[in-house]
TrEMBL record:
Molecular function as annotated in GO: isomerase activity
Keywords of the record: Isomerase
Annotated protein name in UniProt: Tautomerase
Span of domain 4-oxalocrotonate tautomerase-like: 2-60
Species of origin: Panacagrimonas perspica
Amino acid sequence: MPIIQVNMLEGRTVAQKRAMIAAVTDAVVGSLGVKRETVRIMINEMHAEHFALGGVSVGEQPLGKRNGHPSASATGNGALAGERHNGATVE
C-alpha cells in the first residue's frame, strides 16, 4: 500500500487538490502496478511562515515572488513542483 505525502503551501483550491490527487494516484498506479484503492495520499498544507528558502520565510516574500504558490506571477523561475533547489523542494 503506497502512502504518498504532499507538502505544499496553503492557498490552493479544493479543485486543484483533487486534480493533484487524481494525477498522483494515476502515476503511482501506472508506475508501481498497484491497485488504485491501495494508494493513500496525505496533503500537509503549511502556512507561509512555516516554510523558508535561503533563510527567508516564504511569508516574508511578496505574493508575486512566491515561486510555485498559486498567487505567484506566471513568470516565476521556471521550477517544476517537486524539483530541489538549494536543498529545498520547490512548492
